From TrEMBL:
Taxonomic lineage: Bacteria, Bacillati, Actinomycetota, Actinomycetes, Micrococcales
Positions of region (Disordered): 251-277
Protein name (record): Ketoreductase domain-containing protein
TM region(s), chain numbering: none
GO molecular function: oxidoreductase activity
UniProt GO cellular component terms: membrane
InterPro entries for the chain: KR_dom, NAD(P)-bd_dom_sf, SDR_fam
One Pfam family, short name: adh_short
Classification via PANTHER family: DEHYDROGENASE/REDUCTASE SDR FAMILY MEMBER 7B, SHORT-CHAIN DEHYDROGENASE-RELATED
């Protein structure tokens, strides 16, 4: 029986990955920090006839990350598909003297992705097959602080890992969502009222498109034709234009978020990460 491990699999994009993979016949290993939400999600998936294992882990903790890595490398319980989805939104100025929020972002959305992808790749490569999905963001193509920098790294890392694993039977896919209707923006106190309705995506269409791309072995997965066009423009536009667009979006968010206390990121490290630009 195929097994998928999903970090941040209790809500948003992560929960949708868990549901669709269960529908495809995968048993699940769910990783998150919130034990109650893990139990609820496990009950839902078990009712669909799937075996579900839960791992309570805060991916900002290196010890917890190592426990998940060891699960991925357990030869007696192979994992066929890894979805690195855990994370949170960051609305913290780069000039803030308190770098703790940035450190936490790096731990959860960079280091954990590095360690868990490496563990999965080693195990999958030894068996000659496997799939790794890293949830990045179209924000990684913009210049909007630490979150953009982190997501740029996730995309670049995924591409590099796919090159390293070429010919091994193991594929790597970076998913670049845009604005997705989840809890993500509310948790991070990010204003969204000025975002056109045409740019919003549902989790179901996003994950379905990604899993189709995974089946095709695509390294970069961008949902919908409109986002493919936008990503193409961002990749080929002059850097000055990209910075101007980034400044406009950041200004809009800041004006909408006035009255919210800035500082630490809002969200659970290890719980659902709903990526958005």
């Amino acid at each position: 029986m195929a097994v998928a491990l999903v970090t941040g699999g209790t809500s948003g994009i992560g929960a949708e990955f868990a549901r669709q993979l269960a529908h495809q016949g995968y048993d699940l290993v769910l990783v998150a920090r919130d034990e109650a939400r893990l139990a609820s999600m496990a009950t839902e998936l078990a009712a669909r006839g799937r075996a579900v294992e839960v791992l309570v882990a805060d991916l900002a903790s290196r010890e917890d990350v190592q426990r998940v890595a060891e699960r991925l490398e357990d030869p007696a319980r192979p994992v066929d598909l890894l979805v690195n989805n855990a994370g949170f939104g960051m609305h913290v100025p780069l000039t803030s003297p308190d770098v703790a929020a940035h450190d936490r972002g790096f731990e959860v959305m960079c280091r954990a992705v590095l360690v868990l992808s490496g563990a999965a790749a080693r195990s999958m490569r030894a068996r000659g097959h496997g799939r790794i999905v890293n949830v990045s963001s179209t924000a990684g193509l913009l210049a909007m602080g630490t979150y953009s920098a982190i997501k740029s790294w996730v995309t670049s890392f995924s591409e590099g890992l796919s090159v390293e694993l070429r010919g091994t039977g193991v594929t790597v896919t970076a998913l670049l969502p845009g604005w997705v209707r989840t809890e993500f923006h509310q948790r991070a106190s990010i204003g969204t009222s000025k975002i056109p309705n045409s740019l919003w995506l549902g989790t179901e269409e996003l994950v379905s498109a990604c899993l189709r791309d995974v089946e095709k072995g695509k390294v970069i997965s961008v949902p919908t034709i409109r986002y493919k066009a936008l990503v193409g423009l961002l990749r080929h536009a002059p850097k000055a234009a990209v910075r101007a667009v980034s400044a406009a979006i950041s200004s809009s968010r800041s004006s909408e978020s006035a009255g919210h206390e800035p500082g630490a990121p809002v969200g659970s490290a290890g719980d659902a990460h709903q990526a958005g630009s």
